[in-house]
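User: Can you predict the 3D structure for this chain?
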Amino acid sequence: MTQKPDVTGFYDPRTNSIQYVVADPETRMCAIVDPVFDLDPNSGATATFNADEILRFVQDNGLTVQWILDTHPHADHVSAAYYLKEKTGAPITIGEKVTEPQKLWKDIYNWPSFPADGSQWDKLFAEGETFKVGNIDAKVMFSPGHTLASITYLIGDAAFVHDTLFMPDSGTARADFPGGDAGVLYRSIQAILALPDETRIFTGHDYQPDGREPMWESTVAEQKAKNIHMAKLKTEAEFVEMREARDKTLPMPKLILHALQINTNGGRLPEPESNGRRYLKFPLDALEGAAWD
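Assistant: Here is the predicted structure, written as structure tokens:
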């Protein structure tokens, strides 16, 4: 915990996502965590505004990208991991359990030729596996519940917890996506909260409750004392009851059917067809949570 990387967050207001550059101040090596590829679902337009902002930051600060780290296949934004790999040459990574959501979504999309083996990434991390960002020690924690494949990256004193914990005034992530499980999520959160109190917690989304400015950094101590779900609900059964009731009121993310066929493929867009255009495939009536109102 004495190792303290420089962490810079990049907030995307379209998807309420936070992307991170995590740098070793000594070696100037860095990792990029959960970068966003821009997709407008109404027009089908794509862009790289977010990823290019990160690239400018890396260049302006004399950093070298060592890793591009996915925490899980996201349902609410498209991953720019593959785009950044092409720009930087850095390997793209994710947890080895990614094959489970790959198999699940391969079936949902009726995608028989899709290789659900994790081969789209350069590195699949195992539970407890260690690596380095520059000279800073890093470790992988398996943190399922939100998805089957979610992991936490612990880099020095900084934990990148993706969609398990939000800021304390926002609580915890939903667990009703295909493969999600509220009880499993509770146990993953407990493992994160067992880290030292001074551990910095960096979340993957912020929805700005009461219109406040975006925030994404807290500590384990703050989460244990103030998280509106974890501080009040003392047992797994209480948490599961709350989480399942709340999740029933939430619509599916507007990008879920766009994002998963790209994100389970390591951030690769579909190949162009004979007319030069790329196409996404939408299964009808495959998910619950329609926003009729």
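The helical segments are 49-60, 81-88, 99-108, 182-193, 220-226, 236-247, 256-263. The radius of gyration is 18 Å.
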